[in-house]
Specification:
The protein is of the alpha/beta class and about 260 residues long. The chain is built from nine helices and 13 strands. It has a seven-stranded parallel beta sheet, sandwiched between helices. Strands 1-3-2 form a three-stranded antiparallel beta sheet. Strands 8-9-11 form a three-stranded antiparallel beta sheet, covered by helices on one side.
């Protein structure tokens, strides 16, 4: 197989499967580990994919169906890295904290696994997360109201006005994508003011971004990346991407694969 044919085969695999690893390339096309890495580097330089630590993702990953579109039906299908990032985030939460959980799957996992020995107050704009927390005796919930979208979330002026009247110890945020250059980004403009209101009202700002979201840009920038105090990601994120965040003064925590 010529190199051009192999590169097209790699892109076809990505389109069909959503990701590819260097071991996939080695096994599928009979090349060495170094050749597999070189293939991915060349394709990334052409703007055709985004490398991760162990492979690559489609360059349009963010525009596809995304796990942060949280519903009760889909959260169980999310990859293991989302759960492990949530688990690490829980370690940062302290007794009597007031925290914000964004309406994302990784934050749903936080809500689902909050320990019973911590007394907490949780602020959220997600009716799904609020419902999960409602039965926890050690957690009181502030549900940010307003006009609710079809996924059970509120981002409008009422929610923004309410969140600006609060003071929170920590906010946990996950958006469509994050890069050192473009910052945190989303696909719709409606939530820009809401997310900035949350960060304005929080002492510590913690981004929860799986490797699928690192180094990508969505359509609309919410804020510079350096508004975050900490970024938690997983083992497959590219070190060169993470170093750019560190250069901006952001503490980067990488969870290890279990």
């Amino acid at each position: 197989m010529f190199i051009e044919e192999r590169h097209q085969a790699i892109l076809d695999w990505l389109k069909e499967n959503g990701s590819i690893s260097t071991s996939d390339i080695q096994e599928n096309y009979g090349v060495s580990y170094e050749s597999a890495k070189r293939d991915l580097r060349i394709l990334e330089e052409k703007g055709l994919l985004k490398r991760t630590h162990g492979g690559a993702l489609p360059i349009r990953q963010v525009a596809a169906a995304r796990p942060e579109n949280l519903t009760i039906k889909n959260y169980e299908s999310v990859k293991k890295n989302y759960f492990l990032i949530a688990k690490k985030a829980i370690e940062i939460i302290e007794n009597n904290d007031v925290i914000f959980l964004s309406s994302t799957t990784v934050c749903y996992f936080i809500a689902q696994h909050l320990p019973d020995n911590l007394k907490l107050r949780v602020v959220t704009n997600s009716i799904i997360i609020a419902e999960e927390l409602r039965v926890k005796e050690n957690v009181s919930v502030i549900l940010l109201g307003g006009e609710m979208d079809k996924k059970g979330n509120c981002y409008d002026g009422i929610a923004i006005e309410t969140v600006r009247k609060l003071r929170m110890d920590k906010c946990f945020i996950c958006t469509s994508a994050i890069s050192a250059e473009f910052g945190m980004s989303i696909q719709r403009t409606a939530a820009i003011s809401f997310f900035n209101g949350v960060m304005d009202s929080s002492k510590r700002k913690i981004g929860l971004f799986p490797k699928e979201k690192i180094g990508f840009d969505s359509i609309v920038s919410i804020s510079p990346a350096e508004r975050l105090d900490m970024l938690i990601t997983d083992w497959d994120a590219m070190e060169e991407d993470l170093e750019l965040f560190r250069e901006k003064g952001i503490e980067v925590i990488v969870v290890e694969k279990e």
